[in-house]
Amino acid sequence: AHATSKLDAVVIGAGVAGLYQLFRLREQGLNVRAIDAGSSVGGTWYWNRYPGARFDSEGHTYQYLFSEELYKGWSWSERFPGQPEIERWLN
Fold it and tell me: Which stretch of DSSP H or E encloses residue 27?
């Protein structure tokens, strides 16, 4: 049985934007949960696992610059990272 808890907000989708919203709302002290159709986070990068899937922009443009801890805690292994690395970053 799940304990009932009051949520202030629910974020639909746990991709790049959904995780950003989750972070910002929790930063404000709100009790928030993100839900996604996938069994894990990643959004597009969870679902698109075809060979050769990768960022079409340089990895550094996807960094979470709103958090120094998150930004400094990750370094891309290549200029245009592939899907497996992107998914690891989102997790």
Answer: helix 16-27
